[in-house]
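Bug #77: duplicate submission created two jobs. Keeping one. Sequence:
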Amino acid sequence: MDESRRAFLNDLLEAPTPSGFEAAGQRVWIDHVEPFADDVYTDAYGNAIAVHEGTAETTIALTGHGDEIGFIVRDVLEEGFLRIAPVGGSDRTVTKGQHVTIHGDEPVNGVIGQTAIHLRDPDDDRYDEITAQFVDIGAADAEAAAEHVEVGDPVTFSTTVEDLVDGRIAARGIDNRAGSWAAAEGFRRAVAADGDATVYAVSTVQEEVGLNGAQMVGFGLDDVDAFVAVDVTHATDNPDVTAERRGPVVLGDGPVVTRGSANHPVLVDLARDVADDAGIDVQLQAAGIRTGTDADAFFTARGGVPSLSVSIPNRYMHTPVEVVDLADLDAVADLLAGMASAAPDATPFAVDV
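Kept job's structure:
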């Protein structure tokens, strides 16, 4: 990954984007795609959409959701501590003792309190629900706290991007700024290839709280023939994953193409053919009921729009230390660009019955 693309990824990962508060990350995404898009715009809730106008009738959308899990301030206690609630699927087992940032008018540093081991009853150790946990910003009382925060302010872990060895990185919110990065970079590469299809790149909002942005976009983009939703999926190759939960996805082994449920078979074939032609290694994943991605919203839009979930292997999902391999991100971007270029020859996207 070259320096410019890596800087874009870092900027996305460092922006606070809890569901419903995605503006900072969407601004980063828009600034990146504007130079090579024919048009870029947002809708009422901040879904960001870029378009490259092609000469063919085929239109394909490359998408990733721009929001992350987090927390929200739900109460300020008399003693100055903050009660919080989860935004999305926040993991209560990794929250205590973490540095956090409250994103009010100005960022405020805090910590999620954890009583010292010396003062706890070892027979009573348990994982409190997030709503029973609290943030300490150092305020002496509620009046002092109210000078800095208020109910409804979003909260994120304070971790940013760390380089690991062998081209791997760790960060919070890789789910799914990695996907929105890939959608933007796949779009850029598709524009550079100057194919015939009209190509959209989309960064959706509020995926983590119900695929809400994808439902808006799926309704609003009424000329799209196919959606490719890029998200992360579980790499289950770390030692503490039990045997019955181990799956076929390995970090660094390439993009993951999902089969079943929302995933249209013609798009599955298109992805696999493009990968074969380009020498991109892909992994397969099964979705017997749902994908758990924006594809689940796109494929039922407007009476049914062919959709595909393409994923990036990710360790430790929904923790502050998610881990991905940069080579997987680059490979996903190449796959998306190839699919956009090959899409006109693959139409119509229809099941042969």
